[in-house]
Design brief:
The structure holds two protein chains of two kinds.
Chain A: H1 3-12, H2 17-28, H3 31-47, H4 57-76, H5 86-90, H6 107-116, H7 119-130, H8 135-142, H9 146-167
Helix pairs in contact in A: 2-3, 2-4, 3-4, 4-8, 7-9, 8-9
Chain B: H1 3-14, H2 20-32, H3 34-52, H4 61-74, H5 85-107, H6 111-131, E1 138-139, H7 143-150, E2 170-178, E3 181-190, E4 193-201, E5 209-213, E6 216-223, E7 226-232, H8 236-246
Antiparallel strand pairs in B: 1-2, 2-3, 3-4, 4-7, 5-6, 6-7
Helix pairs in contact in B: 1-2, 1-3, 2-3, 5-6
Classes of the chains: A mainly alpha, B alpha+beta.
Chain lengths: ~170, ~250
Amino acid sequence: MSRDAAEQFEQVVGPHLDAAYNLARWLAGNDHDAADIAQDACVRAFRFIGGHRGGDGRAWLLAIVRNTAVSWLKKNRPRAVVTLSPEALGEIEDPGGIPGTFLQADAAALRAALDALPLEFREALVLRELEGLAYKEIADITEVPVGTVMSRLARARRQLQLHFARKGGAS
Amino acid sequence: MNCTESRELLHAYVDGELDLVRALEVEKHLESCPACAAQVKSWRELRAVLQTGDLHFSAPPALRQDVRQFVREMNPGKARPTAGPVIWLWKFLALGATALALFVICLRPGGPAASDALLDEVLASHIRSLQAGHLTDVASTDQHTVKPWFDGRLDFAPEVKDFAAQGFPLVGGRLDYLDRRPVAALVYRRNKHLINVFIWPAETTIPEQTKTRRGYCILLRNAHDQHLCLVSDLNEAELDELAKLLQ
C-alpha cells in the first residue's frame, strides 16, 4: 500500500466513520457486532480505495458497510435478512383515517420501534432520516430501484405509525 | 389528483424528491384534503422526532483508534509497531477470495471486468429511465435550456447539442448516477427509439467498446476529456452515427 492510499483513505473514509458506524449499528443491533462490521468495512474500503473516483465518499463507504453487514448477518443471523413476502407487505398497508401524532414518542420508544422494523425498511429509513441521503443514493447503496426505496420508506413509516397507534404513543 | 394517487406521492413529497410540477399538484390536493394534509403533518413530525431523537450512533473511540492503527500498519512509509498486524492480516485472509473478487470487479477502475459492470449499470439506468416515468428532469428540445440546467448540479459541464437536423432531436436532460458518481444523461430520439447518452469526466481510461445486451446496443466512447456512453434499442449503425456527432 502506498502512502497515497493512506492519505486517500483519510480523506475519503475518515470524515464518514460516524456514518459508517451508525449504519452498522442499526443493521447489527448491538455495539459489539456493529464495531466488528464497521472495522471489517474499513479494511475493505482501504483495500479498494483505488476504486473510489471522486464523488461522495460517504455513499461509497456506506455501500461497503451495507455489503459487509448483510454478508455478516446472512452468516450469523440468517433470519434477520429474510426478504418479506407480498402477504407480509400487505399487512403494512396504509391504515387510512386521520393519523396520530409521534410527538409523544421518546428516544427509547423510537429506538425500539426502529429496531423492530424489518431490515430492508430500517436501512432505508436510517439512510433517509439519519443520514439525509437522496432516494438515488439509497437505491445505489441498497442495490434496489428508486421506486423500491420509495415504497420501503412508505411502509417503514406506516409501520411506525401503526406501532405507536397500538402502543398508545400516538393520540 | 385524488387521495389514492396522492398517498403514493406524499412520501416523495415530504422527502423533497418530486419535481416541481408534481409537487405543485400534491400541494393543490393538500389544500382541499384534510386527511392527506394530516398525513403529511404526521410524516413531518416523524422526521422531526427521528432527527432530534438522539438516534444517530457515533463511532466509539476504540473503533477510530483501531482504524487509524490499521492504516498506519498498512503504510510502509512509517515505522511498523511490533504487535497488531497479525490480527489484521488474519482479517484480510478471512475476507476470502469471494469478497476480494467481488470488489475487484465492482470497484477497480479500468480493465475489461470493471467496464463490464459499468455497462450493466448503464443498461439498468436506461431501462429504469424508460419505466419509471423519469426520462428527463428538464424536458426541452432547446440545447440552450438543457445545458444551463446542468450548471450547479454537476462538477463538470457536459456539451449539449441538438441534432434534429441530422435526425436525432434532443428530448431533454437528466441527472443520473453511474459508477458511484453523478453523471449527465442526455436523451435523444431517432424516430420511435429513445437514446440515453451518459456523459462524465474521464478520470480513468476505459477502452472504447460496442456491446449488445438483451437487445440493447451500448457504445462506450471517449471524447476530449469525457466519457460518452450511448444506449438504445436502436441499431448499432445509427447509434454510432449519433456517437460520431457527439464526438
